[in-house]
């Protein structure tokens, strides 16, 4: 389970060191995402945020998400069009996501050798990678036990 308090402290420090503003809306969006063990969709975030901030609109959420992604605090789950908190935002390299198709739990991996091999192969083929997303969909141990 993600330690939300530690994540928020890390986010504060990281934003301060980079000289970027960690506004109350950005903070709240990160808190909501971190409190969810699976991914949250932008409109789910908007619904939750609108309860607290009546003026919240889709651009508010999308701007916060763009900022959080840019700072490495949140990842977009491409296959689900959802967002998940990064448990180790200080890790500057690529990542892989394990997604349970039953409960929605998302785990982040950092297999740097996989990233290095992909990057090298792309260079060998004369390809410049702009963004990399590796998602593995399957079943977690908890769901396997429950299905027996």
From TrEMBL:
This is Ferric uptake regulation protein. The gene is fur. The keyword Magnesium does not apply. Homodimer. Gene3D superfamilies: 3.30.1490.190, Winged helix-like DNA-binding domain superfamily/Winged helix DNA-binding domain (1.10.10.10). Its cofactor is Zn(2+). GO terms for cellular component: cytosol. Belongs to the Fur family. It is found in: Cytoplasm. The keyword Ligase does not apply. It comes from the Bacteria.
């Amino acid at each position: 389970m993600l330690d939300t308090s530690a994540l928020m402290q890390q986010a504060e420090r990281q934003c301060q060191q980079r000289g970027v503003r960690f506004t109350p809306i950005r903070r709240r969006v990160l808190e909501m995402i971190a409190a969810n063990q699976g991914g949250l969709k932008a409109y789910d975030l908007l619904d939750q945020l609108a309860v607290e901030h009546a003026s919240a609109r889709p651009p508010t959420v999308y701007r916060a998400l763009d900022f959080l992604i840019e700072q490495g605090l949140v990842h977009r789950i491409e296959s689900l069009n959802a967002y998940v908190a990064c448990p180790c935002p200080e890790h500057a390299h690529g990542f892989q996501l394990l997604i349970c198709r039953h409960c929605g739990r998302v785990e982040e991996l950092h297999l740097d050798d996989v990233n290095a091999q992909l990057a090298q192969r792309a260079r060998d083929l004369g390809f410049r990678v702009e963004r990399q997303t590796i998602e593995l969909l399957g079943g977690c141990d908890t769901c396997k036990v429950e299905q027996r």
